[in-house]
Each structure stands twice: as C-alpha cells, then as structure tokens.
Amino acid sequence: MGEVAAMHAPTAVRLSLKSYRRITVKIGSALLVDRATGLKRDWLEALAADVGRLAAGGAEILVVSSGAIALGRTILGLSRKALKLEESQAAAAVGQIALAGAWSDALGRNGLKSGQILLTLGDTEERRRYLNARATVSTLLKMKAVPVINENDTVATSEIRYGDNDRLAARVATMMGADLLVLLSDIDGLYTAPPARDPNAAFLPLVERITPEIEAMAGGAASELSRGGMRTKIDAGKIATAAGTAMIITAGQRMSPLSAIERGERFTLFKPSSHPVKGYKTWIAGQLEPAGHLTVDEGAAKALNSGKSLLPAGVKRVSGNFSRGDTVAILAPDGREIARGLVAYDAVDALRIAGLKSAEIDNVLGYHGRSAMIHRDDLVVGDADQADGG
Ligand code: GLU
C-alpha cells in the first residue's frame, strides 16, 4: 500500500515538452467535433500552433486524430440516430476527407506540411505490414511532414479494427520509437475512481508503473462521443511504457492544451519502463490481441524469468486456434499473464506436445520439430517494471 499512498501525494509534476524529441499526440473526437456545428476550427488552429511551436523547437510530431465518424455524421445530417456499421463507415468516408483537409490547412498555416495515414489493424499486427507502415511514416518524418493518422474506419469491420484511437496511438508511438505519447481527452488525468461517480476520487499526477491497482482504477466507461474510456487509455499506457515511451493524459477542451501542460495545468504522467523492450520485441509486446494462451507450470515460469526459452515440457494448457508464428500470451499457474511470444507450433501440434520432454516430440509429431515452443528470441517476459509483461 505504501506505493499507492505515495502516488496519491498531490505533488504537481512540472514538465517541459522541449525535452522530448518525438511526440505522438492523440486527439479525441469530442475535442475536435461539435455534434451540432461540426469542426471546432478555433480549437484546431490553436492546437496546430502548439504543434508548430514544438516542431520549430526541433521535435518531430505525429498526430493521431479521431473525429472522422463524428464529423461525417454532422456533415451528412445524421447526428441524432444510432448508426449501422455501414452507415458509420460511410460517415467516416465523408468525415475523414474533411478532417484531413482541416489538419492540412491548419498545420500549413504554421509552416508545416502534413500527410494522411489511414491504418487497418493488420498494418500494425502483421510484422511485414508493420515494417512497411513504419518505413512510410519515417520517410514522412524525414521529409519534415507531420503524419496525420487515423484508423481506416471505412473498411474496418468489428473483427479487424482497433476500435479506439488510444491503443492505435500507443501502437504508432512505439512503432516509431516516440519518447512521449500525449492523449488529449475529455478528462484531465487518472483518478483513483471515476470522478463523475465518486466524489472521493483522488487525482494521480504521476504513475510510476501500471500495477493491477492502477488498472482497477480505470473502470470501463467511455464518454459519449469517443469509444475509448479510461480502460483503453490504461491499455495504451501499458503498450507505451513497456516500450520506453512516456505517456500523458490531459484535458484537451481548453485552448492550446499542449502549452497548458507546460504552464502546469493538470495531467497524469505515466513513466516509461526503465527496462524497455527494444526493436522486434516492441512489436511483440504491443500486440493488441494474442491469438491464444499457454498456461505454464511454476518451473517454466521461473525459467522464463531467467531468460530461457519456453519448452513444451512446461506447458500445462493450450487454448486458442493459433498458427505457427502468431503471438500468444503465456499465463502463470494462477492465470496471470507473465509473457508474450511468437509460438513455433500451430495450436493442434502445441496441444499434442504440451507436457512432453524434447526427446519425445519428434515421435509424436512424426517430423523433426523445434525443441522450444517459444524461442527466447521471440519472447517478451514481464520484468519488475511491468506487472503483466505488457
Ligand atoms: N477512428 C474513429 C474516428 O475517427 C475514432 C475512434 C475513437 O474514438 O477512439 O471517428
């Protein structure tokens, strides 16, 4: 409890954004779009000026902007009704073109070029596409253009979508090795409980690491216009901090919310891990949905912690319909996630060899298989910094 008490201390955190070299800024729909009147141009102008100022100081900025669906609804006059999936997708098509134009104009007035990137879940979850997306975004940055990123909502269906831009922004930030992710939200940071429902909720200025207690504070509720609530923000924090990216949650409604951070307005800062995962392992650690789960015994859990591969002998249970090369989560006997990795076997074969000694595997499989279920080069194990292996 000592740790939680320390986090409750009302010490404001002072921060200059100038020390960050690559910053991803995520903007929620409710900040940019008013249901009745459409785009909030003055607010966007002021934010673009903030971005221009940071860029002039030498930082590279990536914008992850929501608002396509909300803006499309307003333009099409659909603001009142609940939309079917294909209607949201059509609204996103109309909204995105206006949104991207508005960003391009606003950044242009601050001397910045911009380029639109629309991502689909597979673009970050499949390794080859991840590398392609990363190459394009880094080329844009080299050309001094600000990437303006959103989910490709017009083609995303429920099974293959991020669904919220918080986790999308974290995936982009870590893919690009950003040192800071700023989530501009309709709430000014993390509280011990949802403040709208609990008058005793205390504000947390600093989160040293995302513990199960911190996760419990997030609850599940989202605000009306955006899909992401505190839950998806904490998930974003886990992805970001595990890869060494600090994260800020702050209120975006005020004008110039990035300047406001530097003026000392309220925000919650999530510190990056002191042992961040690197390179290829960043991609593994940040995978949004593991394709399956392997439950291991105590011995295997210990071996993983000391940097060993996961052998079939230590696997107690196999679940999910995964293929060789998919990301699976590794669970301790008590069900806690302790690691993630790329599995060397399809689920059917993993089931057949779970619990077997390496010498027995070939006989059962009828071919010469790999001795490890997950090789240590393909494993990301939670360390003292990350409660669940992120
Ligand atoms: N991609 C959605 C949009 O632009 C927003 C998703 C979210 O609210 O997080 O409308």
Would you tell me the overall average pLDDT?
90
Q: Which hetero ligands occur in this complex?
A: glutamic acid
Detail the poorly predicted runs. 1-10, 221-227, 384-390
Query: What is the beta-strand fraction?
Result: 15-25%
Helix content: 25-40%
Judged by helices, strands and strand pairing, the structural class is alpha/beta
Distance between the amino and carboxyl termini:
22 Å
Q: What's the gyration radius in Å?
A: 22 Å
Shape: globular
Number of strands: 17
The number of helical elements comes to: 15
Which strand order do you get reading across the main beta sheet? 5-6-4-1-7-11-12-10
Major sheet summary line: 8 strands, mixed
Can you characterise this structure?
The structure is a single chain. This protein has helices at residues 2-8, 29-32, 41-56, 68-76, 85-108, 121-125, 127-142, 165-175, 212-218, 230-242, 257-263, 279-285, 298-305, 347-353, 358-365; strands spanning 22-27, 33-34, 38-39, 60-65, 113-119, 145-151, 180-185, 190-191, 203-204, 206-207, 246-251, 267-270, 292-296, 315-319, 327-331, 337-342, 379-381. By secondary structure, it is α/β, with parallel strands linked by helices. The strands form four sheets. An eight-stranded mixed sheet has the order 5-6-4-1-7-11-12-10, with helices on both faces. Helix 3 (41-56) packs across helix 5, helix 4 packs across helix 5 and helix 8 (165-175) packs parallel to helix 10. The longest helix is centred in the N-terminal third of the chain and has 24 residues, at 85-108. Residues 1-10, 221-227 and 384-390 have low confidence and may be disordered. The site of glutamic acid (GLU) has 15 residues, from helix 4 and strand 6. Glutamic acid (GLU) is lined by residues 29, 66-70, 92, 150-151, 153, 164-165, 226-228.
